[in-house]
Fold this sequence. Notes:
This protein is of the alpha/beta class. Helix content is about 30%, strand content about 20%. The strands form three sheets. A four-stranded mixed beta sheet has the order 1-2-4-7. A two-stranded antiparallel ribbon has the order 3-6. The chain has a two-stranded parallel ribbon with strand order 5-8. A hairpin with a 2-residue loop joins strand 1 and strand 2 (about 5-15).
Amino acid sequence: TREFGPLxxxxxxxxxxxxxxxxxxxxxxxxxxxxxxxxxxxxxxxTNARLTDAAMARAIVTxxxxxxxxxxxxxxxxxxxxxxxATGTGTDSVIVVSGTTxxxxxxxxxxxxxxxxxxxxxxxxxxxSLGKQNGxxxxxxxxxxxxx
Length: 148
């Protein structure tokens, strides 16, 4: 969750990228319909801001940028082209839920405060989720075993 003034953004993510990571625009898509390889990154954005339709559509781009930045910083390789940096998985999904009580927002790109919050919350959620699911951690991160 990220907050600034009257704005609140919470991002929930599930992330698995060990067996399905791809570099979009480079890797081959071999599935038309049917069973896809396991592993995906699902992201849900919740905000109190009242987003216009355009802002909700743009939020998907901002989420994708935050997710891709996380994959880059975690150095997640493409499963299909291991020498290439992954940009996501072939089955990623995003849901954006607009609020009803916060200020209205018509733009959610990175130059806006709401876009900054969406990007930062997405980045943090994807980093945390990929660490828990697949053991991808930021360089220099201290990893706790959970044992006390």
